[in-house]
Prior knowledge:
Layout: H1 2-19, H2 27-146, H3 151-317, H4 322-359, H5 370-378, H6 382-389, E1 402-403, E2 407-408, H7 410-419, H8 429-432, E3 437-438, E4 449-451, E5 456-461, E6 464-470, E7 474-479, E8 488-491
Antiparallel strand pairs: 1-2, 3-8, 4-5, 4-8, 5-6, 6-7
Amino acid sequence: xxxxxxxxxxxxxxxxxxxxxxxxxxxxxxxxxxxxxxxxxxxxxxxxxxxxxxxxxxxxxxxxxxxxxxxxxxxxxxxxxxxxxxxxxxxxxxxxxxxxxxxxxxxxxxxxxxxxxxxxxxxxxxxxxxxxxxxxxxxxxxxxxxxxxxxxxxxxxxxxxxxxxxxxxxxxxxxxxxxxxxxxxxxxxxxxxxxxxxxxxxxxxxxxxxxxxxxxxxxxxxxxxxxxxxxxxxxxxxxxxxxxxxxxxxxxxxxxxxxxxxxxxxxxxxxxxxxxxxxxxxxxxxxxxxxxxxxxxxxxxxxxxxxxxxxxxxxxxxxxxxxxxxxxxxxxxxxxxxxxxxxxxxxxxxxxxxxxxxxxxxxxxxxxxxxxxxxxxxxxxxxxxxxxxxxxxxxxxxxxxxxxxxxxxxxxxxxxxxxxxxxxxxxxxxxxxxxxxxxxxxxxxxxxxxxxxxxxxxxxxxxxxxxxxxxxxxxxxxxxxxxxxxxxxxxxxx
Length: 494
């Protein structure tokens, strides 16, 4: 039990120590920290459920043993009561046996005296009878027969002899009856004494049995006391383990909340940075548009002034011929209109070029292709791509997805952002790494695609990128474009 207790406690402490490591900065590490805390909490909760079940089992066992102990104590009390009664009965039998012994001794003495008297009387009677027959009897009858005594005297002697014989006979019978009664009494008393001694022997056996039962019950009670003590110690250990597990779970939950708060703060900072970058980009685009409009206005005014001067000169030169002057004026106007039209076209081209140049400082070595002509003609800049991409910050990441609103992965995000501007890119990061033209890190401009091999993002300027990060973060902005090793940087608008 103690070994298991230490093992569970060690697991809990290890989980708490794991959660207590310094919180990292990246969102992925925050998620790992939160997941580790969740796993440790789940493990501890499972262990705590097992501990609670063990505690319940021990408490039920304690209750059962306490009930058994009460029964044993009741048995011991019952045995004690029976022993008291048995010992009292034995004591009473001892008194009765002692009394019966005394009575039997007296009866024996009386019997001996009666038998002695009986024998004495018997011997005396025998002598008298013998004498009467030998002396008095013969002389009496003889005297009557020979006439020495009268018949009346002879009969009196015979009557006296008979009376004496009768008396002796009655006395002897009385003594004999007394002896018989005393013998019967002695036999009864002997039987009673034997019965009392047998009862005492039975009670002595019952007493020994009760004492044995009581001894067994007391031994069981001692065993139960030992088991109860062990069970209570185990229950105390379970209580301590539950408290330790609660403390560890509380600590892990605190660390999890800290990681969640740190993650939320980081996401808020990233969102604020993205909004600031979006705002700065919008302001920059507005400033670029205003500068382009101002430059176009100045170019148009200069062209108009140049056209007016040429018309006036032509009119002054050819004033001799009204028709010719009118024709020249018409020609001058037409020329001015053509010039204005040409200027407007050039201005549009220059405006597009200016917007591109301000948004991204492409090197002179970058050559134009078919995509470049289409993109330039449509007036799309890298900043336009950035402004459009930033609208979807906060939307979910879905692996294999291509929906900017419902969910997409990193390459799907880049593909769909450029598709909005009519620029077709392939579907995976590995194929996108071969599209557009390669530029160096120092030449990187807003709208360029940074490829990390298995991941991709769009550079938004100010050392920031926008990308579909992962399922836990979704589409976010992030500082440090080189947060992973860069494989290549591709420019899709050139």
